[in-house]
Every structure is written in C-alpha cells, then in structure tokens.
Amino acid sequence: MPARLFKGVITALITPFRDGNVDFAAFEGLVERQIAAGVHGLVPVGTTGESATLTLEERQRVVEACVRVAAGRVRVIAGCGSPSTAQALEMTRHAKTVGADGALVVTPYYNRPSQSGLEAHFRAIADAVELPLVLYNVPGRTGVDLANETVAALAAHPNVVGIKDATGDLGRVSWMRARVEGDFDLISGDDPSFPGYVAQGGHGVISVTSNVAPEAMVALYEAVMACDREAAGVWQERLIALHKALFLDASPAPAKYALSRLGQCAEETRLPITPCATAVRPAIDAAMAEAGLL
Fold this sequence. Notes:
Layout: E1 8-12, E2 17-18, E3 21-22, H1 24-37, E4 41-43, H2 56-70, E5 75-79, H3 85-98, E6 102-106, H4 115-128, E7 133-137, H5 139-142, H6 148-155, E8 160-165, H7 171-179, E9 185-188, H8 194-199, E10 204-207, H9 214-225, H10 229-245, H11 253-261, H12 281-290
Parallel strand pairs: 1-4, 1-10, 4-5, 5-6, 6-7, 7-8, 8-9, 9-10
Antiparallel strand pairs: 2-3
Helix pairs in contact: 1-2, 2-3, 3-4, 4-6, 9-10, 10-12
Pfam family, one: DHDPS
Pathway: Amino-acid biosynthesis; L-lysine biosynthesis via DAP pathway; (S)-tetrahydrodipicolinate from L-aspartate: step 3/4
Protein name: 4-hydroxy-tetrahydrodipicolinate synthase
C-alpha cells in the first residue's frame, strides 16, 4: 500500500433526510461543497452518517453516490462497520466493488468482544477483501476499547493501513509511532484535540466539524502541518466552541441543525436520534458566529 494513503481533513459526512428518506440531492451537494472547500477525503455512512439506522441498501446507495460524485477528486473511505462480522464484510466487499478507496470499520458495538475477538473480526475482513482498511476505535460509543497492542498486531496485515482514534488520548499516537512498523496512517477522530494529535506525528482527522466549517478545518490542519503555532492557535480558538457545540445534543443532530442554518440540508434525523433540542440551538448559533459562519 502507498505511504500516507489517508491524511489531512477527512469529513465524516452526515446523511441528509427528507420526509423519512435519504435526500440524495442534498447529499451530492454536500459532497461538492466539501471538495470545493479543499478537504482531503470523505467518509460516507460512518457514525456521523447515522449508519446504525440506515438499511443495508441505503448504506450501499450512499457510498455509491459519494464515490460517483467525488469522481477521484478526493479519497472516499466507506463506513463499513457493523456488530456483525458478516455484514461488515459484505459492506467492505461492496465498497471495493463500487470503487471506494478504503473501508472504515468500527469495533463491533453492543456485543463487546474480547481483544482476541476484535483481532479476529478485523482479520476476517482484511483477509477476505483486498481494500485498504482503517480501524476505528471509539469506546465511548461501542463499549469496547481496541487496545494498542491489538492495533500493533493488526497493523502487520498488508490490508490494514491505519486507525481512526476517537479516544481523545493523545498519548496513543506516540505509542503507535514508537511500536508500529512501516507505513500506518494515524488519524484522529476527535476534533478538539486533533491539532495536538497531528503535532505529535498524526496524519489527519476524520472530522464532524468539517461538515459545517470545512475551509476553517483545512486552514487549521495546514497551519499545524506548517508548524505555524500562531496561525494554528488562531484557527483553533475560532473553532473550539463549534467543536464542542456540535456535541451538545446527540450527534449528528447539532451538525444537521447547523447545516440547515447554512441552507445545505434539512435538519431531519432518524429515530432514535431526534432533531436538535431547542435549548442548545442558541449555543450552536453563537459558536457558528464565532467561527465566522453566521
């Protein structure tokens, strides 16, 4: 696999809905908006894309739309996670078939497998499909933590090319750099701490905030990569309230509300996620204004 296959600002895309169905016209507009803003990659039907409440057919159609609209201009990492290894494998096969550049596979949620079970889950997928696979560790959502040692063992597999680390533990990136041999893409999954993650040797971020403020997130990443502490500080201070505001209610409801304020899609969600609570909307508006969006 080529070095640094995935890096930079990679947007964890929301899935817009209208009248209970996926709004593909709005989704395609969001993809174009992200590419025009200079992001480096896109993740359709990840956690932020409400993958857990999409049907398998909807997930596949959204991935297909993303690949088609992106048309090779940025890398597309299809969200392929599932608590079922068989379904995750089916999604990964589909992602390869339709031309995605990689698969993002979250640790199986709800059933809380052991470390040996996690390793076997990812190996089964990596063995079966020759597509770059990015591990996704988000214990706050899945109830299980992918241990550093398990990541290091999986990194030896030629199809396992990186990790999205959404733990917020900045010590992990240094551990990985010291112990994982060869090219392995270290991607933050935590917007507020990603500048520190990249400063310690990480390669980018899979971002919720970049749905709403893609240009600013790209500028922040570029400042960090250029070791321009002053510029990075300015951009991070401009965005920090937005990073936090987008999680004041169950994600992605706040992001969808923010995008509706920008006229990019409806704020509709799918149960059990409900539309953004009225009580937190003023804080989101204020954060958007602070970021220069309103």
